Fold 5-aminolevulinate synthase.
Amino acid sequence: MPCPFLGSMNQTFLRNYSSVLLKQYGSYCPILSRSFRSLGVDETKCPFIQKNSIISEAPKEMTEDIVESAKPIYQYENFFSKQINAKKNDYSYRVFRKVSRLAAEGAYPQALEGSDNRRVTVWCANDYLGASRHPVVQDAAISAIRSYGTGAGGTRNIAGNSQMTEKLEHEIAKLHKKPAALIFSSCFVANDATLSTLAKILPGCIVYSDAGNHASMIQGIRNSRAPKHIFRHNDPTHLRQLLAESPAGVPKLVVFETVHSMSGAICPLEEMCNIAHEYGALTFVDEVHAVGLYGKHGAGIGEERGVEDHIDIVSGTLGKAYGNVGGYIAGSSLLIDTVRSLAPGFIFTTALPPPILAGSLAAIRLLASEEGRSLRAKHQAIVRYLKLSLLIAGLPQMPSVSHIVPVPITGADKVALVAESLMKRGHYVQAINYPTVARGEERLRFAPGPYHTPGMIDSLVTALIESFHENNINFNQFMINGACRECSMEYKVDIAYEEPYKYPIAV
């Protein structure tokens, strides 16, 4: 009986590669497999081979011109090594410090750094109001672990929608005065999934993106493959020019953020929303660095300026001022349901675990309360103290109207050296360089909070001056022996500041 497998092949191919075929596929042949078991692995005893002379070694004249050579293998490790070396050579290589932030009363906002657990003061964490270590938030998370465990058990589609999930989404919608909200595993995922989904499914959608937008929004717009236009950072005039050239009746998304994470700038929110709506666009506004910090209830710049209704889609985070992890969007019920039903970044991601849900819910309610307003007032006071202290010391700072205080130091090598010098003096702040900011716009980014004290800031400013001198970085020294160099007027920084309430910690 002819073999159906070999019979279907080109005869010349069989002559040339019979031995290879037999070794690779012989065990699958019912005749060969029996022969192998009874006679060993000698394929020449195969009854098919014995009866069919077409299968044999290729004649010498057909193989004498074939040169066996090893096929080259791509050197993956060499490639990776070159990539890393390039990052190190231009000082953009990221070094992750071993920093364990402390939560205990009297220790926060300090951390244990390095293998010897040296204490340092942390200046760059986005846990802006210390909500992560607030007893109310901690107790809620611990209680949830005891009741429901540490994990969600899967995606919401598979493992189910917990009551805490629905309570948290209801609380977020209420905070932003929107009909509905949807939570994600992070705000990066929230921005990416929402923008990529909406811009992809809206027919002919055009996206208008602020030049200063966060990487998460840029990624979402790219993933949608929708046509896009970039308008100058926080420039409503340029936005209007671009929208004026857009075709009428076409879906449009205008995408920007309120508080810029690296410069501290705050956008002209109302004007930009009004321009977008004038041309029939939906507004997607990232309030990640504003939620919890601005507005009577901590809903962000939209609430503070009374223009929440101008925002069609607001995105926020549970991982900064609210001290947990996760992201969210809020908007109309139909829009939220559309993203819930169509966004892969939501559908196929494991749900937030119970302690995060409970902790986030407690943090939102805390910061919407009178205590939250008190924390925000103390936060702003200590931010003003740092800005004024830098000014008096003559140290450079970028103009910022928010809680973010950037100190520019040009050159990735220089900013890294200053950060290292500060660490030696007990102050941890991460150097910011490319690709977070453009080359030549490197900086240190300070984020003081209500638990930093004027004494801590005085120590930081002294350390900064010493670090600048140590690394030969020039700055305008306005103060000489405590007085202005120009008029000899003595400066004293007086600012209203109260120590935050000391919460009892259960032992």
